[in-house]
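User: My advisor asked me to double-check a structure prediction for 11474_t:CDS:1 before group meeting. I don't want to rely on an old file, so could you generate it fresh from this sequence?
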Amino acid sequence: MSDNKIHKYFSRKYSKWNIVGFLNECYIEPFNLKIDAYLKDLEIINMERGKRQQKAHQLLDRYRKACKDKLKYRLLAEPQTSVRAQVICLITCRSRLFADLTLDPLGPRPDCKVAKSWEEDRTHKQVHLYQPINGIVNGSINTFNGVINGGKFEIVNEQKNPPLRRTPRKTNKVDYAGNSKRVNKEEISDQNSEMHDNEDIDKKVYDEENTKERKKLEKSSKRKRDEYEPDYEGLSLLFDETNKDALVESIDKKVLGQENILPQASDNSVSENQPKNMDASIIEAFHEYQKTIPKSYKIFTPAYWGVLDLTGESLHDCKQLKEEDIMQLSQDFANKISWKKMPPEENIREYFDSNCEKKNDNIKKLAVNIQFMKSDVYSFQGMMTEEELKMSSAFPLFRGIFTSDRIKNIWGEIQALPTNYARNEKGNPFKKARIGRRVDMKSTLFKTSNKFEVIYGEVAGGLGPLGIPTACRKKRYLDKIKLMITMRDGINRLLKEFKHIASEKRMNLTIYGWLQFGLELNFYAMDWSCSGIYRFGLIDQCRLPSDEDEFGMLEDAYCILKLLEKKTLEIEKVVKQLYLKNKREEDCTRN
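Assistant: Sure, here is a fresh prediction for 11474_t:CDS:1 from the sequence you gave:
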């Protein structure tokens, strides 16, 4: 907010602001307009940031608190007020201004009382001159209107700040130059009507300026809110960590169904090069289901974000999609992904059969990370934060099992780049870019030209006493929704980059994610159909050991992560092929 829209008094250092100083410098009359200007200017400054905003907020609180206390005092004490008390109040009113400006052992007096004392003290001291005064300024004769305050004559320009009281009355003529003329009653009446008109115009102009400022502030605040909601209503609310507890409480546990895993891929599964289109009736039913989502529950429903949750957890009350349609879609998705775990090599199996104690130089990296996890396994039986749990369980597993040098795993509270692009796609290029949504882990195919992020991971809470997960089911579901949106943005980024390729060929893209809840790991996959619907399904699950004699169960986690690494490298080939085809199509379009 520019300073020329508010009174020049507030251009000084904020530490010197007080209501008395403003009243002394403000020439707006009458007194209630002074106070109105003071409060409106403070409200404008209160929309800023920094020390000025804090000082304005403090002054507003002091004045408003005083008004509330004054009303309360009047309601309680007014019936008991005596004549003697009123006389004492009139006697002491002249000394109030001095008392307001001095420090009181019990604290400063409220600004409402300070302003009232200032007005009463000014009323006692003022001598109003209701006729124009002729005087010599800079060698010329000029006409002034003003008041005498405490023996000083203050010249007030009648066109800018006309006095309030202009009742015609007979007064003695004051002649400073010795050559003034008597003003008749008709001239005084004309001057008074003109002054009242000027006063009304000044008040109207001041109110219009403040109204324009308020409208600008409202538009500015609305624009700031829209900047944080680039795509969908409630997106910023969903990812705001300060709202996490309120969001969890808003989720209705009763509408959550049982999470189902995708069926096994059939032997005659459809080739990835020939993806199967979704039936038109299913697409129509899905869009009808989107329209029936309650407004208060939209951000918690995957369908609102365009995601068809094939796990069934969010489709508990969906009547538009038939159960056989869901089963058929799940089977088609499983056939496309072709998720088939294979048994490990003989030496790996022997290592897990020995409870991860047998030494084998061929799997040294795996053994080192599992021993690191094993050395801290007793922590799984007590309290652990989310970060401690992640770095003691999932981190050593991925580091020991993922051996490809084409995949870069990054851990910590890190931003997902596709969400960064999504948030700044329609933003102002001259403004500071907003960072992307944060995830607990991501895997990047750093040898692809666009550094495609193919895996995202989330950890839903830590461990409480006895190793029980601290996060409830609703918190796990909330993190699952965030994971869906992040995976969706990852696919959208590639779809926009490969815009010169036919939609059927872009359906080969698949992205993966995992969610940890206590010592349980769930693995998910997502793809895109030409209809604009994203299929999301649970592809596998495993559990981590909680005691050192249970590490043989890590064989299941090993098989899952090895298959995930293989699928990730397959996606790398798909991305490179799509990039090459898109480049050729783009060149053909230009030519």
